[in-house]
Amino acid sequence: MIPKIIHYCWLSSDPIPQKLRDCMGSWKKKLPDYEFMLWDLNRFDIHSSMWVNEAYEAKKYAFAADYIRLYAVYNYGGIYMDMDVEVVRSFDELLTSSYILGLETKKGVEAGIFGAEKNNPFIGKCMDYYKIRNFVSENGKFDLRTLPNIMYEILIDNYEIANRTSIKIEEDAHKMQLFSPDYLTAKSCLTGELMITENTYTIHHFAGSWISKSQKMKGKIYRFISSYRLLNYIYQRTYKKLKR
């Protein structure tokens, strides 16, 4: 059973932005009897991991947090959440499983919220990825592969993946069942469109502290083009009706 522990990480010396505090306000409201563990420089020794140390020194805090979140869940059990995740309802009915995983996209695991029992084998495999790698390569380039894609690759290399359609599941050491995006993500990271359904537990708002300015601009352009196409479609339909 997954313990009632919520892990979250903040490595920057900057104050926590209000929009993140607003999301975190939903945690204590919906999860009043859970323990909250902040992973910062006082709790985690960044020198214990080459990856974390190099990412931290480069001020790529989100990439340093990728390993720390895995470490926290593996060693303590519980649920990790990014601070831009809004809780819609309690996780209590999910805790009877040995893990909680969902898809963010068709080929990306939702790494902003996931949970597991202590010493979960899959989480351990994800940690192993970072143990044998440096964040900064010999030529000075950063390893900017995101955790959602890394988790997905580890899944397809080691497990049969299935769609999780019910709260209670039959555990299988060779099979991992993942919730569809509306359960844990419930929002498009590209368009910002909400995907809330009766299944939704959390909404990941993608504050995107790790996203570059160019990537954020691409998202804005995509949203603009999508809006333009919709408006153009409406205009063409209206114009044709007026011509009749």
UniProtKB/TrEMBL annotation:
Pfam families, per database record: Gly_transf_sug
Source organism per UniProt: Bacteroides thetaiotaomicron dnLKV9
Keywords, ordered alphabetically: Transferase
Protein's name in the database: Glycosyl transferase
GO annotation (BP), single: mannosyl-inositol phosphorylceramide biosynthetic process
One GO CC annotation: membrane
Superkingdom to which the source organism belongs: Bacteria
Molecular-function annotations in GO: mannosyltransferase activity
InterPro entries, A to Z: Glycosyltransferase_domain, GlycoTrfase_DXD_sugar-bd_CS, Nucleotide-diphossugar_trans
